[in-house]
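This section describes the prediction task in plain terms. A model, or a person checking by hand, is given the sequence of a single protein chain and must write out its three-dimensional structure as a string of tokens. No templates, partner chains or ligands are provided. The sample shown here is typical of the held-out split.
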Amino acid sequence: MSVIEEEVKVRKVVVDPKISLTMMAQLSVASDRVKLSIIKKSKYPSEFVPGYHEIARKSMCDAFASNISGDYHYYFEDFKHRAKALAKEAVLHPKKRVAYKNPFYSAQALDSMIVMEGIVTPLLQDYTMQSNTSKSKKSIEINNVCISSRADLILEDQYGVNQVGFLKFNFSKSKYPADEAAVKLHVLKRYYDERKLDLNPYDCILVDVAGRRVYRLSEVANMKDRLHKDTIMIRDTWELI
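The expected answer:
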């Protein structure tokens, strides 16, 4: 008698309601059909987690956290060299492979940041920045739904003594919708509220790299009611799918 061994892939299931910050923002402005699709993707996540812009994100955070005073143009010259190196690295691989996509999209993000020099430089002048890209997970809970909530940079006063805000980069192919930016900013602000940090909404910032603009919490729509409603919907739908 022969024994046939068959490998069975087990589908990953997230038992308790949990959603990424990006998907929470997408869900809050989506149609009912798309909302359900996002919840399914959150409960049954793929084994592959794309990180196409992570090289660029880390490069920007590390650079700005060095807090060079005065000669801010140095950052953007460095991004230019990094982008060229990443673009050369990408073409060594087939276009459908991650080994191509990660350096290629990160090079594009760095190129976009170079164009934003005039927009970003005032931020570099106003704050002392600390990188917040550690692997430790950060999240909040709303209506028993866990939402990831990690900013990319901690913004401190010019003396580097007190935290006054945070900064989140957004990487996408086109201009980031204002309502989605508002959701991200409200979630991140709530994270720090729960830690008894009274941050000024003006200093709670999302940088839309592709859209080449800056969103501040003080200037976007209030999404608290929408977050409350949508997290109830996520919680109540989770067990049904």
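For orientation: The helical segments are 21-28, 32-43, 54-64, 73-90, 98-115, 117-126, 178-193, 224-238.
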